[in-house]
Each structure stands twice: as structure tokens, then as C-alpha cells.
Specification:
This protein is mainly α. Helix content is 75%, strand content 2%.
């Protein structure tokens, strides 16, 4: 009778564990969907609740750089080729939209937003030959080549603008009807739409057969080539997609500031920002770069507004934060938290198994364990 009661107790405990695990799986599946929808709703209503221009400006830049670093991550995060020259495509997108608006006499308002994909396409087309050249090498040599490409574009922008303009700058139409706190609202929602598009592309790449090929290249390119992955076309396609997204972000940024200079459109700190945001949140993940951009860009905007008056010390703080991230969080926030959560789940599962093992060997009133194995009539 005692053995029957103990077996019933063990069975009920295991049944409770199965039911709890099932409920946890359902809650996790639907909770993730509900959480994402809640974040989307918060992003949509944010400028309506916090209508102050300073607050919406910080949110606007956070969304723009979140989209840009998501595009950067599609190439560098999934292939392992760290690019320090994507600010070149940011500047190309900015100058492309400025030239389009001047040549075609595009009026101010919502019309320039329609040419943002065209500016991104210009950046993508330029990325095809540049990527084909840069991707012929690997590792540190690739990083050096991307830096060289960036400075080449920066010098070209300086020389061409000084030759064809009197002020060395290009201007875009100014939406004078968007006054006060409303000025940031259209840019905010366009940036939000671009971020959602970038996330959708990143998710598709990450979960597709093509994305598996990119991850194989990141792990071991020679072995991936031996397994039949077309490494060169795969890397080049990711490079072009990445440049397309970054170029569109540059176009939105140019229309927002409405006057661009070579030193601001082709800014080397943008390259550092892309890398730092991705590594802070978790390079190679979908949500990591977005989290890094939202955290870091908001902080950078605060540094810019508060510490710039003290001689630009915000750049020193920026560099110190970059070193701290590399040393303390080499894998980023999202991978680190995921690893610790998986470790906690594994230890909890192990403790439950040990607890069940103890219950299966409970002693009887005589002090002898009832759970014994019988074989050929002999108690073992």
C-alpha cells in the first residue's frame, strides 16, 4: 500500500511538471507575440504622448540608427566580416537624395520621402563593384579596405562639392509648414516604417536557407565552400542589401537636417556607432542591434547636448563605452542574457530530476528502500 501511495505521488508530481511545461511553452509562445505587439503599439503612440521636440528628436535618431545597424548586421553580423566603411553608403544615400531634390525640383513636404528608396538603390548599385573588390580578402585586410573605401568617398564628396558649389554644401527642401513639435513626427514614422522593413528583411535572412549559408560562412568559410555554399555571391548579396538599408537611412537623415556637408554626411563616427551598437546588443542576432541602438543613441544624444559645451568630451565617453563593451560584454546583452537564462533552466531541470530520484528511493518504515531491482529472483 505504501509503495502504491508513493508511486501515485511521483506520478502526480511528474504530471504536474508536464502540465507546467506545457503552460510555460504556450505562455512563452503567445507572450512573445503579445510583447512584440505591445512594443509596436508603444512605438506608434510615443510621439503622440511625448510630443516635445527634444524627446521626439532623440527617439527619431534612435529609430534611424536602429534601422541602419540592423542593415549593417545583415552583412557583418551574419557573415562575420566586420565592415568599418558603411558610413560611405550612409553618405551616398544622403547626397543622392539631395541631388535628386535639386535636379528634379522636388518640393518640400512628403514628396522627398518617396525618393528615399531611390537613394538607397543608388547606394546599393555602388556597393556591387565595391563589395566585389573588398570581399576578395578576409579578416583584417577586409576591415582595412572598407576603411579605405570610406575615406575615398569622403574625399570625393569634399572635392566635388567644393568644385560645383560655392559653400561646399548641398541643401534639401525645407518643409516650412511643419513647425513646432510637429516637425519631427513625419520623420519619426518614416523611420519607424524603415526599421520595420529592415527587421523583416533581417528576420527572413536569418531564418532562410540563404541565411544558413551566411552563418556557415561566419563559422568556417572554407568548409562552407566545400559543402556547396556559393560564398562569394552570398556575401555580395548581403553586402548590397546592407548598403541599401543604410543608404535609405542616410537619405532620411539628410532630409531631416536639410543641409549636408561632406564632413557630416561621411562621418567616421557613424562607423564606430554601427559597430558599437551591434556589439552592445549582440552582433548576429535580430533584436540585439536594435536594443544597442535604442540604448546607445539615446545616451549619445544626451552626451551631445550636455557635454559638447565642455570641449566635446562626449567622444571620450563614447570611446570608453566602446572599450567597456568589448571587455565586459564581448557577446552582447542579448546573447549573454540568453546564455544565463539557458544555464538557469538547465540547473533547475537538473534539480527537479534529482528531487524525483530521491522520491523514487524513499525508505520504508523498516529503513529499507522499497525501490530495488529484481533479477532472476535475486534482490540486487
Amino acid at each position: 500500500m505504501r509503495m502504491f501511495k508513493e508511486s501515485s505521488l511521483i506520478f502526480s508530481r511528474q504530471l504536474d511538471r508536464v502540465e507546467t511545461l506545457g503552460r510555460y511553452t504556450i505562455v512563452r509562445r503567445y507572450g512573445k507575440t503579445v510583447g512584440l505587439l505591445a512594443l509596436l503599439v508603444i512605438a506608434i503612440v510615443f510621439p503622440l504622448v511625448f510630443s516635445n521636440s527634444e524627446e521626439t528628436g532623440i527617439a527619431l535618431f534612435a529609430l534611424m540608427f536602429a534601422a541602419a545597424v540592423t542593415g549593417w548586421n545583415i552583412f557583418s553580423g551574419y557573415t562575420g566580416y566586420i565592415s568599418l566603411g558603411h558610413a560611405a553608403y550612409f553618405g551616398v544615400g544622403a547626397y543622392a537624395l539631395a541631388i535628386i531634390c535639386q535636379v528634379w525640383n522636388v518640393p518640400a513636404g512628403y514628396t522627398p520621402f518617396l525618393f528615399v528608396p531611390v537613394a538607397g538603390l543608388v547606394a546599393a548599385v555602388l556597393a556591387i563593384p565595391l563589395g566585389w573588390i573588398a570581399l576578395r580578402v578576409r579578416r583584417h585586410t577586409f576591415v582595412v579596405i572598407t576603411i579605405a573605401i570610406f575615406f575615398i568617398f569622403q574625399l570625393l564628396a569634399i572635392n566635388l562639392t567644393e568644385q560645383y558649389t560655392t559653400t561646399g554644401s548641398l541643401s534639401l527642401p525645407i518643409p516650412i509648414d511643419w513647425t513646432g513639435d510637429f516637425y519631427n513626427i513625419p520623420f519619426y514614422y518614416v523611420s519607424l516604417i524603415l526599421l520595420l522593413v529592415a527587421i523583416a528583411i533581417s528576420w527572413w535572412v536569418r531564418n532562410s536557407k540563404y541565411g544558413l549559408g551566411l552563418l556557415a560562412i561566419r563559422d568556417d568559410e572554407d568548409r562552407a565552400l566545400g559543402l556547396g555554399v556559393k560564398t562569394v555571391p552570398s556575401k555580395l548579396a548581403a553586402f548590397v542589401i546592407s548598403a541599401f538599408i543604410v543608404g535609405m537611412v542616410g537619405a532620411i537623415w539628410a532630409y531631416y537636417v536639410f543641409v549636408i556637408y561632406p564632413s557630416t554626411a561621411f562621418d567616421a563616427t557613424f562607423d564606430v556607432a554601427f559597430v558599437l551598437m551591434a556589439f552592445l546588443g549582440g552582433v548576429g542576432t535580430i533584436s540585439g542591434p536594435i536594443l544597442g541602438a535604442l540604448l546607445l543613441e539615446s545616451t549619445q544624444q544626451y552626451f551631445t547636448s550636455v557635454l559638447t559645451q565642455n570641449g566635446g568630451y562626449y567622444l571620450i565617453a563614447y570611446g570608453a563605452l566602446f572599450l567597456a563593451v568589448i571587455l565586459l560584454l564581448p557577446r552582447g546583452i542579448i546573447p549573454t542574457l540568453s546564455e544565463r537564462w539557458a544555464r538557469y533552466q538547465a540547473s533547475r531541470h537538473q534539480r527537479l530530476q534529482e528531487h524525483d530520484a530521491i522520491l523514487t528511493a524513499l525508505p520504508t518504515a523498516d529503513g529499507v528502500a522499497e525501490n530495488v531491482e529484481r533479477k532472476e529472483g535475486i534482490n540486487l
